[in-house]
Amino acid sequence: MRKNRAMHRVAVLALDGVVPFELSLAARIFGTAEGLYEVITCSLDGAPVATGADYSVVVAHDASVLAEADTVVVPGSEAHAAFTGPHALPEPLAIALGTIRPGTRLVTICIATYVLAAAGLLNGRPATTHWRHAAHFRRHHPRVRLDPGVLFVDDGDILTSAGAAAGLDLCLHLLRRDHGSELANQVARRCVVPPWRDGGQAQYVERPLPASSDASVAATREWAMRHLGEPLSLVTLADHARMSLRTFTRRFRAETGTSPGRWLLQQRLDLARTLLEAGDLPVDRVATRSGFGTAASLRRHFAVGVGVSPVAYRRAFRRGAAVAVSPGCFSGNPEPG
């Protein structure tokens, strides 16, 4: 029985070999949002689970709790990479997944993406996984629209994240989606993590270090964040960094995993969302303060980047409801036109 039916129940399914850090993420992030979520951890049979470290964990529930969950989180295990086809799931796991109610939100961390893919739940849908497994995943699950360059993908009722720390990004995104940026930022501060990380997985892919490390675009990114309402062309940013356009663009992508234009658009969208949630500022003023210039430009970029109009976004958060975002809209943003 549920302790509090007014609370959103998050069930975390611990499978053999689970990465301990990933197992703890949901409880840490959602548990910090006191009174809003009930987080419980289960194993398939309620027995202790051997982790990927040198210890096991004891859980208080078996997989029967999945049937009552509003969100199911599956942390990753190196064993998941063996789930390479529709018949690769162990029978107890397949049965447990089959008990999840339609409409329940499904969340995977790191290579737990293999679990949902092997269950056929990702066919034809966008998803991500750890970049080191991308080629292997594509070979064995070609029907999944894999994007290995992002930190997470929000496809509505199914959300997938990349490496372990990207699970933090995804959990904070869910807080933001459920209850707004203010709460997500508060939880991030309490956990001493950034509320939003720039770029995607590309910035973490193994690559040779630049020949010189004395030049960085970090100071220019910080400066741009303080001047989002002003015209910020690529030339302006490169001049601030005292670099040529070519050098600046190359260093920016090497440090963030994305282009200056895409990064700037994301920062402006985030600022616009915060302004819409926080007060009654007219849409045209929100557009000006966030750097979009006009309400029409804000609406156009908001429709692509968030999936709803600015007015609908504000109305949804004022009701305390989640915004229905477009499929994959948080897997990346188009270059600004």
The figure for the number of domains is 2
Radius of gyration over C-alpha positions, nearest whole angstrom: 21 Å
Helix content: 25-40%
Q: Which sequence of SSEs, written as H and E, runs from N to C?
A: EHEEEEHEHEHEEEHHHHHHHHH
CATH fold field value of the largest domain: Rossmann fold
Round the mean pLDDT to the nearest integer and report it: 85
Largest sheet: 6 strands, mixed
How many strand units?
10
- CATH class (first level) name of the largest domain: Alpha Beta
| CATH evolutionary superfamily of the largest domain | Class I glutamine amidotransferase (GATase) domain
Shape: globular
Contiguous uncertain segments of 5+ residues: 202-214, 319-337
What class, by secondary structure content? alpha/beta
What is the architecture of the largest domain at the second tier of CATH? 3-Layer(aba) Sandwich
Explain what this protein looks like in three dimensions:
The protein has 337 residues and is α/β, with parallel strands linked by helices. The protein folds into two domains: 8-191, Class I glutamine amidotransferase (GATase) domain (Rossmann fold, 3-Layer(aba) Sandwich); 208-337, Homeodomain-like (Arc Repressor Mutant, subunit A, Orthogonal Bundle), CATH 1.10.10.60. It is 39% helix and 10% strand. The protein contains 13 helices and ten strands. The chain has helices spanning 20-32, 91-98, 113-118, 134-140, 166-179, 181-191, 218-225, 234-241, 245-256, 260-278, 283-289, 295-305, 310-318; strands spanning 8-13, 37-42, 49-50, 56-57, 71-74, 105-108, 126-127, 145-146, 152-154, 158-161. The strands form three sheets. A six-stranded mixed β-sheet has the order 2-1-5-6-10-9. A two-stranded antiparallel sheet has the order 3-4. The chain has a two-stranded parallel ribbon with strand order 7-8. Helix 5 (166-179) runs antiparallel to helix 6 and helix 10 runs antiparallel to helix 11. The longest helix has 19 residues, at 260-278. The radius of gyration is 21 Å and the shape is globular. The protein starts with 7 loop residues before the first strand and ends in a 19-residue tail after the last helix.
